[in-house]
Amino acid sequence: MNPATFFQSLEATLAQYPLAALLVAAVGGVLSTTTCPCTLPAGVGLVSYVGYRVESVGERARQRYGAALTLAFFVGLVLSLAALGTAAALLGRVLAQWGAAF
Question: With left for phi above 0 and alpha for psi between -120 and 50, is residue 17 left, alpha or beta?
Answer without folding.
Answer: beta
